């Protein structure tokens, strides 16, 4: 499942829109690329729904610098993110963690799709024998209506 | 004086609307003559609101700052166009625009609905009037645009500089026409529920309104996206911002409605679901217009800037949406469906389309509202941003795109999946070939993006394949095929064009995301740097004076395969507000664009410069334009126009 999700993310990800400044950027391209990837997932807390990678705000600048400092100090990507979550709370994550309080958020869409699909299959099965018949029973009619 | 007249006209329009609504809802089945009254009332409402709107425009154009609204949102130095657009560049004025379009729709129903059954027409116009009364009343009581200031200030504050753009002249009217157009579908749905009459003819009457609204909404969203792209200065075109989501949800639901109304019109099936979608679509349009204004969506932390206004909005939304669904739950079981079909059929394919689109709308709705609900119930604050939406929305859309080309090939009632697959084999082969070719030519090291590209080509080629197949190319002589192609109904072309547009947008999204090049650097005057095939040279920075702003203009020369071009990005400071903006310079090469932004001055006399090369980025919006054009094309189809005489017969039969 994970490679598929990664693919879809890549396909649909909004463009990496940048307010990053040349003087912030790290000289090591690999490290800088990691910093950019992390930044895209972090919210600029004082902005309207912008990642720190998109924002001109001073706070976004500070967070970008912190991300790069932690990376230079040898933190993994997960450690950098955790470092910021510890200080700013979950609000800083643009992609919420999967936890008890976010289960509904993550499960809602797949659940609707699956339940909708099951309902359709049931209705279709019920009607399989019906297509050739002229009349419907009341129950079948109802199922049809509910479609 | 004209302002007071305008104010009075709006009050009168709301009063007439209230009377119309009550009279229509109370008397729709008592008298045939009430329909005439309703039609005249709708036209009167339109004329009065137009007068009110005209009075506002006149005050803004003449910079009459005794009008509080003009003082707060306009300035005498603004160019004429922006003085006019300032009217709706704020909450109060945009409410008047919204109501203006609402009464325009009502008047249009009144004029074009002569052939509708009288009772249906009365109910539809009564519902439209109810909306005018409610939201017009809301405007007058909580957001009155006609308030005066005394003494009148000598100069106005200014329209937010970001809004001083041609985009404000185009985007809101298009978007609102889309939103408000769905009110007609909503009113038709409510009328059907109240009267208990719903049949294929109903779907035929609703379909043009659905199409029209959908076209405008499509254009409005695309225009908004392009506006954000060039104006906000960092080259993003979709941010999954609550405001954007608010416009996207009715689009998804409206797209589903468009397809399910097709099933109902052709096969008299899916009636209840279509009614449900019509209600949902307009409900989401209402959410789109008003949740943002109530103040609870724009920021999780600042609840309603004006608590009364926010509360009234929520009450109105609850009444309309809740009332509609209550009526639906109460009356829907009384409606009987017809039209049988096998699971593998055109109907089945359209149901699948509806399942995925409805789920997508639900996913966006969940993501948008969940943080609010969580904070209200547990006090926990979380963010739901682009990474979440990209993941969930992408996961729902990908399978829809896979099955999309099969739909138009399916026969009604009972389709043959194997035969359809055989007829699509050519399109599939061509899509694989195109995707492989592009990846081979561009290096192919970019992880899994080629699959996204493949999906885009599959949808686009599948749309062409449908036309080719219908015309019979390959099965008969070229001349005969061409004649058949020309003779195809316009709806065949519009289906193919719309689906081709979807493919274009997908290709644009994937290409611009995966193959984008970026250059963030500091440049000295005279210095050159390269990005991809292009060499960017900073010649210098000039100071210029605009009509109501001071600007620093960078003079750049860009040399590359597309020839040598001059680019002039700006950094502006607006005089009245002191607000800075950046104006990016954009050069288009074929379908691709070079996007150049001038940054701050650096300490050593250089300039921060940000350049992006966005391959095929324009396909994103051109695809949307193709979809909208397809919708307009479908509106001109003969079958929609010649329906009229039959309506009268149907009505005569229904009147028994």
From TrEMBL, chain A:
Keywords from the named record: Cytochrome c-type biogenesis, Heme, Iron, Membrane, Metal-binding, Signal, Transmembrane, Transmembrane helix
GO MF assignments: metal ion binding
GO biological-process terms attached to the record: cytochrome complex assembly
Entry GO terms, CC: plasma membrane
TM stretches of this protein: 103-124
Family: Belongs to the CcmH/CycL/Ccl2/NrfF family.
Domain of life of the native organism: Bacteria
Signal peptide: 1-19
Coiled-coil intervals, chain numbering: none
Protein's name according to its UniProt entry: Cytochrome c-type biogenesis protein
Entry-linked Gene3D superfamilies: Cytochrome C biogenesis protein
The UniProt record lists the keyword Ligase: no
Function as written in the Swiss-Prot or TrEMBL entry: Possible subunit of a heme lyase.
Organism this protein belongs to: Devosia nanyangense
One Pfam family named in its UniProt record: CcmH
Domain CcmH/CycL/Ccl2/NrfF N-terminal stretches: 8-147
Automatic annotation (TrEMBL), chain B:
Homology family: Belongs to the CcmF/CycK/Ccl1/NrfE/CcsA family.
Transmembrane domains' residue ranges: 6-29, 41-61, 95-113, 120-141, 174-194, 206-228, 248-265, 272-291, 311-330, 351-373, 388-412, 424-442, 448-468, 493-515, 616-636
BP terms from Gene Ontology: cytochrome complex assembly
Pfam families named among the record's database cross-references: CcmF_C (PF16327), Cytochrom_C_asm (PF01578)
Main location: membrane
Organism of origin: Devosia nanyangense
Function: Required for the biogenesis of c-type cytochromes. Possible subunit of a heme lyase.
Gene Ontology terms for molecular function: heme binding; heme transmembrane transporter activity; lyase activity
Residue ranges of every copy of the Cytochrome c assembly protein domain listed in the record: 88-294
Topology of this chain in the membrane: Multi-pass membrane protein
Keywords of this entry: Cell inner membrane, Cell membrane, Cytochrome c-type biogenesis, Lyase, Membrane, Transmembrane, Transmembrane helix
Taxonomic path: Bacteria, Pseudomonadati, Pseudomonadota, Alphaproteobacteria, Hyphomicrobiales
Subcellular location as annotated: Cell inner membrane
Name under which the protein is recorded: Heme lyase CcmF/NrfE family subunit
NCBIfam families in alphabetical order: nrfE, PRK10369.1
GO cellular component, one term: plasma membrane
Domain Cytochrome c-type biogenesis protein CcmF C-terminal residues, every copy: 314-638
């Amino acid at each position: 499942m994970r490679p598929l999700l990664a693919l879809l993310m890549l396909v649909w990800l909004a463009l990496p829109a940048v307010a990053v400044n040349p003087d912030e950027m790290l000289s090591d391209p690999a490290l800088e690329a990691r910093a950019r990837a992390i930044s895209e997932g972090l919210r600029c807390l004082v902005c309207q729904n912008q990642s720190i990678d998109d924002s001109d705000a001073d706070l976004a600048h500070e967070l970008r610098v912190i991300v790069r400092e932690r990376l230079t100090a040898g933190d993994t990507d997960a450690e950098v993110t955790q470092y910021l979550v510890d200080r700013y709370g979950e609000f800083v994550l643009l992609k919420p963690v999967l936890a008890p309080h976010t289960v509904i958020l993550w499960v809602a869409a797949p659940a609707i799709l699956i339940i909708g699909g099951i309902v359709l299959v049931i209705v279709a099965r019920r009607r399989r024998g019906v297509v050739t018949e002229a009349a419907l029973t009341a129950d079948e009619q109802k199922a049809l209506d509910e479609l | 004086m004209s302002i007071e007249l305008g104010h009075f006209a709006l009050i009168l329009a709301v009063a007439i609307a209230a009377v119309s609504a009550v009279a229509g809802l109370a008397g729709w089945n008592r008298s045939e003559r009430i329909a005439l009254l309703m039609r005249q009332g709708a036209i009167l409402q339109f004329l009065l609101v137009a007068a009110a709107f005209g009075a506002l425009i006149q005050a803004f154009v003449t910079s009459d700052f005794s009008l509080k609204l003009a003082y707060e949102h306009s300035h005498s130095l603004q160019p004429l166009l922006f003085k006019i657009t300032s009217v709706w560049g704020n909450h109060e004025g945009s409410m008047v625009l919204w109501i203006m379009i609402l009464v325009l729709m009502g008047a249009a129903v009144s004029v074009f609905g002569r052939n509708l059954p009288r009772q249906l027409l009365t109910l539809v116009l009564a519902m439209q009037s109810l909306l005018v009364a409610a939201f017009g009343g809301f405007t007058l009581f909580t957001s009155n645009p006609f308030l005066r200031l005394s003494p009148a200030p000598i100069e106005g504050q200014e329209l937010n500089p970001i809004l001083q753009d041609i985009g404000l002249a185009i985007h809101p009217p298009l978007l609102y026409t889309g939103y408000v157009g769905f009110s007609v579908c909503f009113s038709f749905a409510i009328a059907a529920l109240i009267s208990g009459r719903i049949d294929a003819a109903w779907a035929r009457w609703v379909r043009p309104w659905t199409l029209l609204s959908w076209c405008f909404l499509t254009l409005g969203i695309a225009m908004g996206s392009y506006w954000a792209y060039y104006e906000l200065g960092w080259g993003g075109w979709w941010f999954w911002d609550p405001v954007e989501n608010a416009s996207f949800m009715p689009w998804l639901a409206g797209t589903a409605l468009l397809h399910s109304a097709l099933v109902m019109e052709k096969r008299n099936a899916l009636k209840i679901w279509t009614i449900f979608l019509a209600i949902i679509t307009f409900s989401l349009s209402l959410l789109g217009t008003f949740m943002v204004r109530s103040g609870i969506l724009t920021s999780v932390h600042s609840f309603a800037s004006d608590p009364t206004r926010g509360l009234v909005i929520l009450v109105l939304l609850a009444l309309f949406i809740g009332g509609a669904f209550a009526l639906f739950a109460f009356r829907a079981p009384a409606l009987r469906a017809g039209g049988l079909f096998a699971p593998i059929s055109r109907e089945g394919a359209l149901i699948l389309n509806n399942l995925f689109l409805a789920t997508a709308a639900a996913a966006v709705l969940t993501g948008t509202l969940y943080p609010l609900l969580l904070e209200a119930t547990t006090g926990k604050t979380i963010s739901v941003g682009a990474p979440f939406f990209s993941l969930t929305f992408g996961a729902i859309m990908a399978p829809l795109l896979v099955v999309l080309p099969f739909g138009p090939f399916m026969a009604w009632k009972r389709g043959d999946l194997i035969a359809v697959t055989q007829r699509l084999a050519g399109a599939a082969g061509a899509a694989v070939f195109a995707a492989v070719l592009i990846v081979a030519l561009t290096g192919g090291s970019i992880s899994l993006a080629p699959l996204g590209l493949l999906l885009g080509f599959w949808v686009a080629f599948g749309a062409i394949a449908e036309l080719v197949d219908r015309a019979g190319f390959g099965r008969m002589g070229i001349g005969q095929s061409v004649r058949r192609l020309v003779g195809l109904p316009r709806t065949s072309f519009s289906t193919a064009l719309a689906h081709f547009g979807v493919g274009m947008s997908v290709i644009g999204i994937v290409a611009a995301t995966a193959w984008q090049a970026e250059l963030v650097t500091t440049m000295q005057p005279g210095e050159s740097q390269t990005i991809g095939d292009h060499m960017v040279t900073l010649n210098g920075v000039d100071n210029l004076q605009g009509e109501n702003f001071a600007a620093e203009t960078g003079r750049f020369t860009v040399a590359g395969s597309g020839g040598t071009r001059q680019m002039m990005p700006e950094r502006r400071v607006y005089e009245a507000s002191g607000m800075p903006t950046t104006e990016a310079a954009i050069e288009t090469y074929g379908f691709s664009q070079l996007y150049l932004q001038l940054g701050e001055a650096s300490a050593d006399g250089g300039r921060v410069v940000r350049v992006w090369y966005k391959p095929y980025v324009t396909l994103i919006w051109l695809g949307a334009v193709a979809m909208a054009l397809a919708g307009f094309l479908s509106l001109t189809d003969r079958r929609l126009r010649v329906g009229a005489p039959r309506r009268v017969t149907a009505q005569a039969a229904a009147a028994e």
